[in-house]
Amino acid sequence: MTQTARSLSSAYVTTSIPYVNGQPHVGHALEYVQADTFARYRQQIGHPTRLQTGSDDNSLKNVLAAERAGAPVAAFVERNVALFRGLADALDIGYDGFIRTGDNPSHRASVAALWRACDAAGAIYRRSYRGLYCVGCEAFYTPDELTETGLCPEHLAPPEAVEEDNYFFRLSRYGPALRDAIEGGRPRIVPESRRNETLAFIDRGLEDFSISRAAERARGWAIPVPGDPAQVVYVWFDALCNYITALGYGGADDTLYRQFWTDAGERLHTIGKGILRFHTVYWPAMLLAAGLPLPTTVFVHGYLTVEGQKIGKSLGNAVDPRALIDRYGGDALRWYLLREIHPTADGDFSAAHLVARYNTDLGNGLGNLLNRANSMLHRYRTGVVPAPPPHAPIPELAALCEGLPARVAATVGSYDPRAALDAVWEPVARCNQLVDEAAPWTLHKAEQAGDDAADTARGQLDAVLYALLESVRIVAVHLEPFLPAAAARLQAQLGIDHHADATRPYHERARWGGLVPGTRTEPPTPLFPRLEISEED
Length: 537
Description:
Layout: E1 11-15, H1 26-44, E2 49-55, H2 60-69, H3 73-90, E3 97-100, H4 105-120, E4 124-134, E5 139-141, E6 160-169, H5 175-183, E7 188-190, H6 192-203, E8 209-210, E9 212-214, E10 224-225, E11 228-233, H7 235-240, H8 242-245, H9 255-262, E12 266-272, H10 276-290, E13 297-301, E14 304-306, E15 309-310, H11 321-328, H12 330-340, E16 347-348, H13 351-381, H14 395-402, H15 404-413, H16 417-438, H17 440-447, H18 454-479, H19 484-493, H20 498-501, H21 506-509
Parallel strand pairs: 1-2, 1-12, 2-3, 7-13, 12-13, 14-16
Antiparallel strand pairs: 4-5, 4-6, 6-8, 9-11, 10-11, 14-15
Helix pairs in contact: 4-10, 5-6, 6-10, 11-12, 12-13, 13-16, 13-18, 15-16, 16-18, 17-18, 18-19
C-alpha cells in the first residue's frame, strides 16, 4: 500500500499485534478492516501510506496453549500465525508489513535498543514485586481493578499471585508529561470517552510496572534482557516496540523509521478497548523516556459481542471469520463490520444481520442500480456511454456526487466509517429514485416516435443514463477504501481499467464528468448476488 509520491505528509497506520494462542475470531477481522480502511483512504487522497500488522509470538499465553495442545511452541505459533495472516489476506487487507516478534532478529535488536535508551534515561531499575497477574491479559491487576468476586474483568478468570525479582519501568515519573501530551492532543485518543478514561487512570496515580520476567517462568520463550540472560523482556514492552522495530528503529537502515515515524504527519494506532492503557499510557511513557515522537492518534474500537458477552478465544464463544468468508464472501463481512457495527462502541454480532445488510445495501441498492442502468444502456445505446447534453436536467445529482469528497473527508477524519458510508450511499438512494421518476423506458419510447418531441426525449434519456452511470463511477471511487475488490469490479463493468484509473489524482477521479462518452461498458452482470443465511449460523 506504500506510495512513493511525497506531495503530502506520510501516514503510518497500525493494528495491534494479536496473541497467537488460538485461531483468529471475528473481532480480529473488525480491527483489520478498520485499519485497512483508514490506510486505504489516506493512500487514495495522496498520502504516502504504510499499513503495519503482525503477530505477538512471545506471549506466555502462546507457550501455555502449546503445552495444552501437546505441540512444540515454535510449530504451534507458526501454525496460528499462518491463520492470522490468512485472515488478513482473505479480507483483502493491504498491509505493507507483517512483523513477527518471535522470529525476527531485527525486532530483537530494536527491542534491546529501546530498552537501553530507557535505561540510559534512568527509567529502568530492579526490585522484588508481588502482585496479581492475569496470563490472559499478560498484565498485573490491583485488587480494586478486579470484579467483586476477584476475577480479571476481561477474562473473568482468577489472577495468579506472582512474586518475582524483575526490572521495572518508572511509569510514576511520567504522569505529568503524559497528561500534558494528551490534553494537547498528542496523542489524540478517539473516542473522547477513552481519552477521559486514560486521564482518569493517570490522575489516580501511576505505579511503576514490571518490564521483565524470569526466563525460567517464561520457558525461555521471549527476548533476553540486555546484559541479563536470566531475565526476559515482558511481553508488552516487547510487543509495543513492534510499531517502530517494524520500521527499522535502531538498525543500520532506518529509512522507513524516519519516513513513517519521526517525519510522519500521522502515526495512527488502531486498537481494541481492552488494551487502552498499554497504548495510551505505557507506550507513550516508554517513548518519552527514550526521547522519541509519540503516536499522533490512538483509535479505540469496541468489542464484538455474542448475546452481550465479549467474543474471545478463551471465553469459548469465538465466531470464525474464515467460515463467514467461505459462506458469504469477504465483501459481505467487510461491509457488515464497517456499515453495521459502531466504530467505537460494542456491537452484537449476528450472521442474519450480516446477510440482511449485504442484501439491502449491496444487492438491492448499489448492485440493482448498476444492473438497471447498464441494462438500459445496452438496450437503448448498444452499451456505449452517451454524451450528456450541455444543460443536464439533473444538476442536483452532480452536486450531490461532487460534495462527496468533503463529506467523506469529514467523517473519515473523525474515524467514523459508518458515517462515511452514509454519505457515499446518498447518491445510490437518489439514483434509484431517479430511475423511477425519469422512467427511461418511457423516454426511449418517446424518442422512437419520430415526432417533434423525439429529440428532446433523446437528450433527456442520454442525460439520465449518463448521470446514473457517472454516479455509480463516483460511488465506486469512494468505495475503494471500504470494499476495494468490489469497487474494482464496479469500475470494470463500467469499462474502466481500475489499475490505470487508480494512478490518477483523487481530485480528478472524484470530479463529475469523469466517465468518458463513447466508453463501452461490459455486459450487465449482477455483482452482488443475493445471499441466504446458512443453516450453520
